[in-house]
Design a protein that fits this description.
CATH superfamily: 2,3-Dihydroxybiphenyl 1,2-Dioxygenase, domain 1
Shape: globular
Order of helices and strands: HHEHEEEEHEEH
Number of strands: 7
Structural class: alpha/beta
Number of helices: 5
Number of domains: 1
CATH topology: 2,3-Dihydroxybiphenyl 1,2-Dioxygenase, domain 1
Strand order of the largest sheet: 2-3-4-1-5-7-6
Helix content: 25-40%
Strand content: 35-45%
CATH class: Alpha Beta
Length: 167
């Protein structure tokens, strides 16, 4: 079994998930040439036990990783030995989020994160018709713009999470 198939057995069908992401981006008026990279996809777990299980499975396919507390819960970021290929993108990272206390989320692939070619203010201005979630826009450490779609989200950054975490 190839690494990509083994990773799919751990996190689920990332290709169908990315099909949904790209379909939503296109419908919202985004163009793929606005992005430098699709730096990672994120998987949210329902329990700490599942977080540890997914983490253990992914570390086998990671050349480097960061496992730190962020927002009061563990967050794993892996740089894959062999990036996942999707269309014209190579996805180098996977983020795994443990649940926050008293929050219940459905387990599975949750969001994808893109590095924009333009600065975030320029990107936001270009897409001023979009109602971005700005909760993390003023954040010092890798500010982001977020757009929520049905059953998935997309986050936009000026810098890759792998670069920020120095992975």
């Amino acid at each position: 079994m190839t690494e990509q198939k083994q990773i799919k057995s751990i996190i689920g069908d990332y290709e169908t998930f990315l099909d949904k992401i790209f379909k939503n981006l296109k419908a919202a008026g985004f163009s793929l040439d606005e992005f430098k990279e699709l730096d990672h996809i994120a998987y949210r777990t329902e329990s700490l036990e599942n977080y540890e299980k997914i983490k253990k499975g992914l570390l086998e396919f990671s050349q480097n990783y960061s496992d730190k507390l962020f927002g009061g819960r563990p967050v794993l970021v892996c740089r894959l030995k062999e990036p996942l290929s999707y269309d014209n993108f190579m996805v180098e990272g996977i983020e795994v989020l443990a649940p926050k206390e008293n929050n219940k989320f459905e387990e599975g692939l949750e969001h994808a994160e893109f590095v924009t070619k333009a600065t975030l203010p320029e990107f936001r201005e270009k897409h001023r018709n979009i109602s971005f979630d700005l909760d993390a826009y003023a954040r010092e450490d890798n500010p982001e713009l977020t757009i929520d779609f049905e059953n998935c989200a997309v986050k936009f950054h000026a810098q890759s999470l792998l670069q920020v975490r120095e992975i």
